[in-house]
Structure formats: C-alpha cells, structure tokens
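Inverse folding, one chain.
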C-alpha cells in the first residue's frame, strides 16, 4: 500500500469511527415530525371548515341539533389530557434506567386513553340524536371527532407495542427511540383534542 493510500485509509477510519460530538436526530424522529405536521394540517383544515360553516349559518348547530353535553365530555377531556402526565413520567423514568416507571407509566396512559376511546364510541356516539348525513354540522362533527378517535386508537396500539417491547427488555435507557416517537405522537393527539373540544 502506498503512502497516499495509507493516508486515505487512515482518514476514512477516523471519519467513520470518531464519535459525533453533536449526534443528530434519528430517521424515525424526523419521520414522526413529518407525520405530525401532515396530520396537524388535516385537522387545521377540518377546524377551519367548522368555523366557516358556523360563521355562515344563521343558527348553530343547524336544524336545532343539540350540542353534546359539556360536563360529560369535559370529564373525559381531562382524562385524555391528563394521560400526558404519566407519559412524561415514563419517558423521564427510562432515561434514568428506571424500567418500572416506564411500565407503570405506559399502563396508566393506556388505561386513560382506552377510557376516553370507550366513552366516545360506546357512550357519546350512541347518545347523539343526529347522523352524519343530516346536515353540514353533523358531517363536520362526525368527521373531525371520528378522525381524532382513530388517532387515539392508533396511539393505543403503538403504546401497547412499546409496553410489550418493554417487558421483553428491548426498551432501555440507551435504546428508547421507539418510546420517544410514540410519545411525540401521543402528546400530539392530546394537544389536538384541545382544539377539537374547543
């Protein structure tokens, strides 16, 4: 090997083996950011449509439809938004190597999220006195809330997968990118509900 080849090989080795002083975000992290931005745009469009229809209508909701009862949905709103607390607790716990905190936190999040989803699908929808085809208000109401409900369900599935991986020992203080991106998604779902509920 010539001197030039040796120098080139040495340089390549230094480039590939040297640790990064400022590690960048993972592909999974950026993928979730793009997904969240896309989903946020969709929800923003739906909410903009809602307010446009409301501004153009002489009465709202249309055709004398009764709006959902606030006390009941407010309670479940607190449950859903409150689920971000054990999520944060779990995320901080695994960074310290406290796997038990991650397990406990995920279980609490799943239970709280499941309660919200069950309330929406088993209680709230059956109690409504209007259908999705009745008028513009009904259509935008069902579309927006059902879309959010589907996001809650997807989030619960992802959280369950993370919980299974945790019990399998695959989520650790050194390797928890899956938890990080799922946590981002769940916090987004919680935040979106604030605007949907409002």
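Residues assigned per position:
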């Amino acid at each position: 090997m010539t001197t030039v080849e040796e120098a080139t090989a040495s340089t390549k080795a230094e480039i590939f083996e040297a640790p990064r002083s400022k590690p960048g975000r993972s592909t999974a992290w950026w993928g979730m950011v793009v997904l969240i931005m896309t989903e946020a745009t969709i929800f923003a469009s739906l909410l903009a449509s809602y307010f446009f229809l409301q501004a153009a209508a002489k009465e709202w909701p249309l055709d004398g439809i009764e709006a959902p009862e606030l006390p009941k949905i407010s309670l479940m709103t607190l449950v859903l938004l409150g689920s971000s607390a054990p999520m944060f607790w779990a995320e901080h716990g695994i960074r310290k190597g406290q796997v038990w905190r991650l397990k406990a936190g995920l279980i609490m999040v799943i239970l709280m999220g499941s309660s919200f989803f069950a309330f929406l699908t088993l209680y709230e929808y059956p109690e409504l006195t209007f259908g999705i085809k009745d008028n513009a208000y009904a259509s935008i109401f069902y579309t927006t809330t059902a879309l959010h409900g589907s996001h809650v369900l997807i989030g619960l599935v992802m959280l369950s997968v993370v919980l299974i991986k945790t019990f399998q020992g695959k989520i650790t203080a050194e390797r928890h990118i899956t938890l990080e991106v799922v946590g981002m998604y769940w916090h987004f779902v919680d935040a979106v509900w604030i605007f949907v509920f409002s």
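The helical segments are 3-17, 27-56, 70-82, 84-95, 99-127, 136-167, 177-197. The radius of gyration is 23 Å.
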